[in-house]
Design a protein that fits this description.
InterPro entries: Fes/Fps/Fer_SH2, Kinase-like_dom_sf, Non-receptor_tyrosine_kinases, Prot_kinase_dom, Protein_kinase_ATP_BS, Ser-Thr/Tyr_kinase_cat_dom, SH2, SH2_dom_sf. Its EC number is 2.7.10.2. This protein is α+β, with helices and mostly antiparallel strands. It folds into 3 domains: 138 residues, SHC Adaptor Protein; 86 residues, Phosphorylase Kinase, domain 1; 183 residues, Transferase(Phosphotransferase) domain 1 (Transferase(Phosphotransferase), domain 1, Orthogonal Bundle), CATH 1.10.510.10. The protein is built from 13 helices and 23 strands. The protein is elongated, with a radius of gyration of 30 Å. 36% of the residues are buried.
Length: 484
């Protein structure tokens, strides 16, 4: 049976009548085509039902919000490999189809569609207050990327313009099959051409398995150990979760961190595995590093000075890389240096993690929001003027050097009482972190240069990494000479 038309469209059709045989024939042909299409829809889905009730005018339509249950009951057609809709695919719940991207954010949808041609689209769910969701069509157009919330009329039917259907499957099929625009403005028509599959980093939360006990706590929730099976292989995970699923601020911070990590690929940066896109709480999936954080590891294990310098070089290499990508970390500390152990449980590599506070594409960053500032690792200009730059990351790295050679102790633990103002006054008066006897003299000099009160006088991370490499090479040469 044919799709239902709005009252506006019916009135328009009824007012245009002709006594000519040619126009009557044209009308009959059109009706036959519509009937044929209705039979096709009915054959494929078995769910499109006719109705003599017309769709009310849009300005009189009460659009209801779709709930999670609505989405699970809705149906779409699975796209073929070339992105076209295959009309012969069996009907399945919406969540089964790869071009349904769940609760992926507007920003992430735009990132997915950015490099595609006009007509490429995806379907997603947009979160609303409470437990409700709106179903959204995100589509690449000639002028950019547009987002159309798919309304539902009083009778529970989905529609874009003139035609209403009882399920999303039929709505998309009609507009795709007949190349009918999803918009009807005079100079702006948008057509469905290719459906975009979910990306490698989008996961259903039911794919993720978590252990009961958290590894630690973050700003907005806990971090759990878990796993996900990818192409038959088990991937161990560190999973960042939200304590409150309705916390939009926390959710956006998690998603923003994931966006940054998607752009970073380096041996000394924690790898992003993916993000859950189901309508439940958002989770960020990171590779699991079996050694944990360096501050905790150093409290329990003795490492040689050379091993510490090698691991510091790993951290410096990771920071050097993110600086080359125009990223300022803003939260560098030993706790955010994760350790990978080899098969003999010996330290193999350090990776930088926790990009929740990072900023991109700025030389100098200023903000008045300093609630989560890591005071003990912050440079003087940060404490005084709320300013961050790559040189403030260099200062923080010097504090990491101190942590590595003080068994993960708390920086400035000797300052009591402690506050940002007290620390700033101490630093301005020449107070600094002290070296330890096991530190190489050149490492002491390097740490001091990174702790220069004048940010312009601090070295770059490229320079820091190069000096660490020289130190490591010289220590190897010295050991070989001593053993000869």
């Amino acid at each position: 049976m044919q799709p239902m038309m709005s009252e506006k469209s019916k009135a328009k059709n009824d007012s245009v009548k002709s006594d000519s045989d040619s126009k009557s024939k044209e009308k009959e042909d059109s009706q036959r085509k519509a009937t044929a299409f209705g039979k096709l829809v009915n054959k494929l889905s078995g769910r499109l039902k006719g109705s003599d009730e017309s769709l009310a005018k849009k300005n009189a339509t009460v659009v209801k919000e779709a709930t999670l249950e609505d989405i699970r009951k809705s149906n779409l057609i699975k796209p073929s490999k070339d992105g076209t809709i295959d009309l012969n695919q069996p009907i399945q719940p919406l969540e089964k189809y790869h071009y349904y991207h769940g609760c992926v954010s507007r920003y992430d949808a735009e990132e997915i569609l950015f490099n595609h041609s006009p007509g490429n689209f995806l379907i997603r769910a947009s979160r609303r207050p409470g437990n409700s969701l709106a179903i959204v069509l995100s589509i690449r157009t000639t002028s950019g990327i547009s987002h159309f919330e798919i309304p539902v009329d009083n009778f529970g039917r989905f529609y874009f313009n003139d035609f209403a259907f009882e399920n999303l499957h039929s709505l998309l099929m009609y507009h795709f099959k007949h190349f009918y625009p999803v918009t009807l403005t005079t100079n702006y028509c948008v057509y469905l051409k290719h459906a975009i599959d979910r990306t490698y980093w989008e996961f259903d939360d039911r794919q993720v398995h978590l252990e009961d006990t958290p590894l630690g706590e973050g700003n907005f929730g806990a971090v759990y150990r878990g796993y996900v099976d990818i192409d038959g292989k088990r991937q161990l995970l560190a999973v960042k979760t939200l304590q409150d699923p309705d916390n939009e601020e926390g959710r956006e911070e998690l998603l923003r961190e994931a966006r940054v990590l998607r752009k970073l690929e380096h041996v000394n940066i924690t790898k992003l595995i993916g993000v859950t896109i189901s309508s439940g709480a958002t989770m960020v999936l990171l590779e699991f590093l079996n050694g944990g954080s360096m501050d905790n590891y150093l409290k329990k294990h003795q490492l040689s000075p050379r091993t510490k310098m090698k691991l510091l070089a790993d951290a410096a290499n990771g920071i050097k890389y993110i600086h080359s990508k125009n990223v300022i970390h803003r939260d560098l500390a030993a706790r955010n240096c994760l350790l990978l152990l080899n098969e003999n449980n010996h330290p193999e590599r350090v990776k930088i993690t926790d990009f929740g506070l990072c900023v991109e594409a700025v030389q100098v960053y200023r903000t008045t929001d300093i609630q989560c500032i890591p005071v003990r690792w912050s440079a003087p200009e940060t404490l005084k003027d709320n300013v961050w730059s790559q040189k403030t990351d260099v200062w923080s790295f010097a504090v990491i050097i101190w942590e590595f050679f003080n068994e993960g102790s708390l920086p400035y633990y000797e300052i009591e009482p402690f506050s940002p103002i007290i620390l700033l006054k101490a630093l301005a008066g020449g107070y600094c972190l002290l070296s330890t006897p096991e530190m190489h003299p050149q490492l002491v000099s390097l740490m001091a240069s990174c702790l220069n009160f004048d940010s312009d006088e601090r070295p770059t991370m490229d320079m820091v990494y190069e000096k660490l490499q020289v130190l490591i090479s010289s220590s190897v040469h010295k050991n070989k000479k001593a053993s000869a």
